[in-house]
Design goal:
Layout: E1 6-10, H1 17-29, E2 38-42, H2 48-57, E3 63-66, H3 83-88, E4 93-96, H4 99-104, H5 109-122, E5 125-130, H6 134-138, H7 142-153, H8 159-162, E6 166-169, H9 183-200, H10 203-206, E7 210-214, H11 219-226, E8 233-236, H12 243-252
Parallel strand pairs: 1-2, 1-8, 2-3, 3-4, 4-5, 5-6, 6-7, 7-8
The structure holds 1,3-dihydroxyacetonephosphate (13P).
1,3-dihydroxyacetonephosphate binds at residues 10, 98, 170, 175-176, 214-217, 235-239.
């Protein structure tokens, strides 16, 4: 069975509640334009409820996801969001280990691993992010860095759990810079990740796992990325804040 393409919008810390509702409504109303592609919106945590309600009101099958979560189900963790809270608001996905979480908030592979396990245990599908910095790429360390991140973030997962995970390859130098990886650069790393997943589980399991590309994806570069055999969708930042652009990208993955 071919892997179902998945395009997710990471809204990061943007918009206000009214604009979040409006954007969700617009994407939901036009989701048919990208029929066959799974769409997911990841608004700021405070707007998950409003966005979930807008998606439900439009009777769309656009999914809802968190941008981060804690690995514990409850407790004295001021300011944090627990996995059951995301579920409670209708989330089915959660982005974990985004490079902004890793670099600005000190998330290590061990932390991402604990969160990934917690998400799976709660019944959420984790979108686990990996990717090298410009310095690492220029130093010829891309493969080693991505390998360490994938192994560390997914350590101890059973093949059955691995199969459920979505991986997002997001080269840090391409995030928010307008400097997208070439389709060949992205494909190379996606193929590396898939072979790594094969060694962690089996090639059959690896063949089912969806690997998104993220980093300056726009409607005009999405088709070339989508044409690559191991690129199964996109994790979109800036361009996901406009319904036209987000849907334009999603359409390229049909
Ligand atoms: P941009 O699409 O804005 O480069 O952001 C990518 C990203 O970080 C998605 O998670």
């Amino acid at each position: 069975m071919p892997r179902k393409k998945i395009v997710a919008g990471n809204w990061k810390m943007n918009l206000d509640r009214a604009k979040a509702r409006e954007l969700a409504g617009a994407v939901a109303a036009r989701s048919g334009e990208a029929a066959g592609v799974e769409l997911v919106l990841c608004p700021p945590a405070l707007y998950l409820d409003a966005v979930g309600a807008a998606l439900a009101a439009a009777k769309s099958n656009v999914g809802l996801g968190g941008q981060n979560m804690h690995d514990k189900a409850s407790g004295a963790f001021t300011g944090e969001v627990a996995p059951p809270m995301l579920l409670d608001l209708g989330c089915t996905y959660v982005i974990l280990g985004h490079s902004e979480r890793r670099t600005l908030f000190g998330e290590t592979d061990a932390i991402v691993n604990a969160k990934t396990k917690a998400a799976l245990a709660a019944g959420l599908t984790p979108i686990v992010c990996v990717g090298e910095t410009l310095e690492e790429r220029e130093g010829g360390r891309t493969d080693a860095v991505v390998t360490t991140q994938v192994r560390g973030s997914l350590a101890g997962l059973s093949p059955a759990d691995l199969e459920k995970v979505v991986i997002a390859y997001e080269p840090v130098w391409a995030i928010g810079t307008g400097k997208v990886a070439t389709p060949q650069q992205a494909q190379e790393v996606h193929a590396l990740i898939r072979s790594l997943l094969g060694s962690l589980a089996s090639s059959e399991v690896a063949g089912k796992i969806r690997i998104q590309y993220g980093g300056s994806v726009k409607p005009d570069n999405a088709a070339d990325l989508a044409s690559q055999p191991d690129i199964d969708g996109a994790l979109v930042g800036g361009a996901s804040l406009k319904a036209d652009d987000f849907l334009g990208i999603a359409k390229a993955f049909r």
